[in-house]
Fold this protein.
Amino acid sequence: MKKCIFAAVAIIMLLGAQAYAQKPVVIMGPGLNSGRTEYHQDWNRVLSPDTVYTLTGLYYVDSTYTITVPAGTIVRGDTAATLIVKRGAQIFATGTEQAPIVFTSRKALGSRGPGDWGGLIVLGRAPVNKVEPLIEGGIIGGSFGGNDPHDNSGIIRYVRIEFPGYRFQLNNEVNGLTMGGVGDGTEIHHVQVSYSFDDSYEWFGGTVNPHHLVAFGGTDDEFDTDFGFQGKLQFGFGLRDPYFWDPTGESNGFESDNDGSSTSTAVPYTAPIFCNFTLVGPVISVPGNSYQYSAVLRRSTKTSVYNSVIAGYPWGVSNRDPYTHMFSMNGELQWRNVSVAATNLKTATSIHDDARWAPDSCTLWFNTADWDNYLSTPRTLAAVGLVNQTDYNHPDPVPAIGSELDGTADFSNPRLDDFLQVDYRGAFDPLLPMSQQWTSGWTNFDPQHTDYNAVQTGVDEIPLAGNLVQNFPNPFNPVTTIRYTVPRTGHVSLIVYNVQGQRVATLLDGQKAAGTYDVSFNAKGLSSGTYFYSFSGEGFKETHKMVLLR
């Protein structure tokens, strides 16, 4: 009896392996190696965890439409490929702790790197302090912002975004997760961005309230806020890989601006609240790296930080520009119960950037009595209780019991009334091992060596081509038949144009199962002449000519 059970189990396991090996591969967008070619999803699309997807081109989810990504789905980005959820559209990426969604590089295991593909951009209708701004310098189309702070762009939960940040131009890269005018009706939590070639996360205005975020190995800033972002964020972990940094700029922990002016009065002001964040800098020094500050606050920002720890960056806080100084002194910008452990002195006596705040002092502000910020002199990670930071692929940022991070949080500030109250600084409970922390199960700190290409056997996928047969009869009057083959279930269109490129008939525009079909075209009401019919789907497009003779 036992032998029969074991045999049955073996057969089931074998069938499961075969099913995985036979997962279909679907190309999303205009096709492989299509760069910045635009593709517009103008229908509601639902992906499948039983399919491996390759994202290509600039893939836009157009306004009023949705893209649904179920738990366990893998989407691999081609070079420059970027997923853009436009204002008015929605994404429902609903992973779970046991089955996270993964957006990653399509390159082979061991050869992946920052900027292999674009990233994820979500645009909404929440307030921003610019008038119809374009995201990412206009390289990618799509403005954002509006007057609805409760706008809902969908759900992004238990999602990993790996090796994004494609550099379209010098100093014009896509971030890992970019949010423009995203409202607080949007749900974003348990997200990990790994090895982005720009910021891991950047918010341009909006009111969304993300939580449980991981930024790992990014080259530029970990958490960047601009254009009037007003969100409340709790529990975030940033970890740097010392061998990756921004080759053209500065690499900081937090970075925040109101807009591009040092005396900006644009409203709403950038005024997010970060609470219970643990940012671990590069720790070791690698020649030529551009790591600088634990935080850069400038250009009239009001960014506030509470109950957090930033350790391992060369310097502490750089609090710049007249209005930022004013907001710091009048209490609109607050840093409370924050531990900083920078490795180098910025001035003769402090890790902070005092030179930009003369005649006052960033150090005196940070050290204000009763704010319980520590300290303004160089310290190691171990000095703040982060003692196990040597293995980047298996990080352990749990603070030591009895350290300054243990039991020293303070939630008495009314700004923190909506936050979950814990008794520790930083993102992790000193009483729990990493296996029981909120990062357990769904994160991955070694994406370079994770085999997402098992179904490919080392060979790049070749997109299945649709097949369009010459219409018959041709010439015709006034009815003809067009035969086409759908290579795989998906969205396809069959459209008739005149010689001026004007659409005269839509014969098909929607989901269609794989198979061969005939469709009749009646040209009643059209003039004699030459017409073109175009059959297209994801990864293919074919056009034929036909003649109407009356």
Notes: The chain is about 5% helix and 35% strand.
